[in-house]
Predict the structure.
Amino acid sequence: MAKHFQRQGKRILGLDKQSWIKGFFGGNAGISIVVLFLICFFLMLEALRFFPAHHEGLKVYRQSGQEYVGHLINQAEGYQEFVSFTNQAYFAEYDARFSKERGIKDSWDALLGEIEDEGEDLAEALEDARDEEDEAAIAKAEADYSAFLEELTSEVERESIDSFGRLAKHDDAWEQLLEAARTYDPVEEDTPEFVSQAVKVQKEGMSDFTKAKDEISSAGTSLKDLRSKLVGITAEIAKDAEADKSAVARKEALLEGADTMEGEARVAAIEEAEKIVIRDEFPYGERVKPLEEAKGAHQKAVAKMSAGLVAGIEKIPDQLSSEKAAELVTKIKKGEKRFLENVDRSLGQASEWKYDQEVGFWNSVAKFFFGRDWITNSSWTDVYGLQPLLLGSVLISCIALFFAVPLSIGAAIYVNRLATLKEQNLIKPSIEMIQAIPSIVLGFFGIMILGQQLQDWSQAAWVPEMFRINDRLNAFNAGLLLALMAVPTIFTLCEDALNNVPRAYSEASLALGASKLQTVTRVIVPTAISGILAAVLLGLGRVIGETMVVLLVAGNRISMPDWGQGLGIMMQPTHTMTGIIAQEMPEVGEGTLHYRALFLVGLVLFTISLAINITAQRIIKRLGNA
Amino acid sequence: MNDSSVTLDSADAPALASNEPIISIDDLSFSYDLGKTNTLRNISLDIPAGKVTAFIGPSGCGKSTLLRCLNRMNDLVDTAEVTNGKISILGQDINAPDVEAIELRKHIGMVFQKYNPFPKSIYENVAYGLRVQGIKNKSVLDQAVEESLQKSALWSEVKDRLNTSALGLSGGQQQRLCIARTIAVKPQIVLMDEPCSALDPIATARIEELIAELQQDFTIVIVTHNMQQATRVSDRTAFFYLGELIEYDDTSNIFGKPKIKQTEDYVSGRFG
């Protein structure tokens, strides 16, 4: 039988041309999927190993007593804050009440310095003359000196009044001061009466506050002493415990090294190796005894500190003439009760500390996700808490969306429904062009121009106090730039969504006598709402994953937002999840706890982005089916 | 605006003397491209009040364009322009500078070729025109919705599911809903642009019945491709060809004894 319809062409490796072409394209698609899975896999692998390592670290933290000392440190630092507030209040009050007296004293000191510097030779001559009791010489020296004083004072009066500016507004005092300078006797070195009077007035006037201040700052001395002592002890324990873990390896390495040596060096190396003690278990119990013993002293020190603080605060005068001081004192009094409660609680926790108490595994998870501190490369102990970074990212994203959403939706509505063809052809490409700006350039713009501008503007009188910008680089600045980056994404997707609304809807609405605006708000936008929502979500995904701009512009300060500032938290520098990875990853050792912590942050970020994207896709899909 | 003025009394509508045509088109030329070519040329036509007037003609003859001139829907095209003549509705030149298209459209409703209810509930669809006029009073809206749905013969079918989506209705129901939506604002004139072309014969028959009912309250202008439909529903018929009005007369005359050869050829199916 004749053969028909046979396949043409050669076969390679048993496959014909069609199969090869199919395989090529399929392979390309497959590679990207495989790469995605590999990325997920390695990210998980590196990140999830954080928890066991972190757990280990937390165990050492407890066993070495660092946990106990941590409580003490918190107490001491909380207390230190009160000392610093009190000092600030003190000096603010001092400045406000005795600016004249202080001016007199400072100006006199400055004037005196000038006189002594310039007239040193003349003063010596005068002293010599007086010693020799030579009338003529004395008269000459005195005349010389008073001529010098005359010249100097008139020069000061004429030219350098600015450097004695504090007194410029108190004319009579200034005159008095110059007069005293003219008659100054370098041998007697008298302080003029009105200057010592000013000093006395200051001292007496502030005596109440001084007492309060001294009482507060001396209350914590013993606590501070205890702190530095115990920090030293526990750091040592932690270090030794760490060394213990590698003892076997080190010993082997030393002995191996000794094998290659000769004579004395060999003996020395072997001796060195023998010194390394190998223990099954590090004797924490023995080492932390000093801490157990210090518990009593700790209680006492805290009691003394609390009592001193309460008594000192009590003594702060009620009537303050400086507004700033009054504000600070209110703050102190407000914080006092809460601080004392916190101290009590933390003291209770500290006294319950036992070095051999079990550390639950979930602690390592909870401490990461809910930890409020992220401290690395610290001489004390590293802490990995996600909260400040997560909140920083969320804060910046919220700011960005706050500006980007209305802008891009408004622009999309305008372009899609109201603009003429000419305007459309101008606006659409322009907005999409924003996407072409490299983020590093935007960041540079943020640092050099926007940051400074915003700071200048925020100093205007009508800007509420909380929006005053102290740091040029802050969340608000970064948020604005990210808003700009999100606009093209949201705008384009939004415009697509609006475009999908049938023309017939707007025709029907207009034919019913609705205006264009009513048509947009009542028919078009409600119909396109899920598409718009998806656009916003994808914009959020873009913003939360952006790195370069936030790294450059957000200020990179790792701290929990100070909620007390209200909306002012926008003006604070902050750090983000993306920023921290970019900043710290180049410097960490591979496989360290820090390294894994950064990977874990990356995993969290990835999960958030994934969730946002999936949600957006779901919404779009549902829209398509409707 | 006072709520009562927009109930079904149309108290604010301009009055019309009897016998006077409600729409008067005088020597109208219209262009979609700023006057380069005229889509409509020198059309003069008076449409009587309270009657059904049909526009017929082959595709592209300008009948829909003329219809859309009447409520100025052509304003949506940037380059559209009336190049000559004028349209007076209720005695008012509707292209005069102080006439607002939005106000005009409140008095001239329109039903489109493809039924296009909003993706809202049935109730909200009917209430839409009143809501955009600022009416919030629930009882006024309820009354208007019920009345309009009853007039468009839909009430009994949907009264139990007013709050469900309008898109769940059948095609014929959706078109009747569009009619209800249009008459809810109590226009004097209802324009219908081939309202049955997307419907099956049964749904078409119901719409035609409805048109006969509505004639009692509204002046209706209907564009149709279907000549039987024109004979069934209309009192007067205008035949257009290539942008010009060829013949305009009582429907029975146009189909029975047309005066012009072209009309006769068209209505007898010899071209078009």
The first strand of chain B starts at residue 23 and ends at 31. Chain B has ten helices and ten strands. Residues 138-151 of chain B form the longest helix (14 residues).
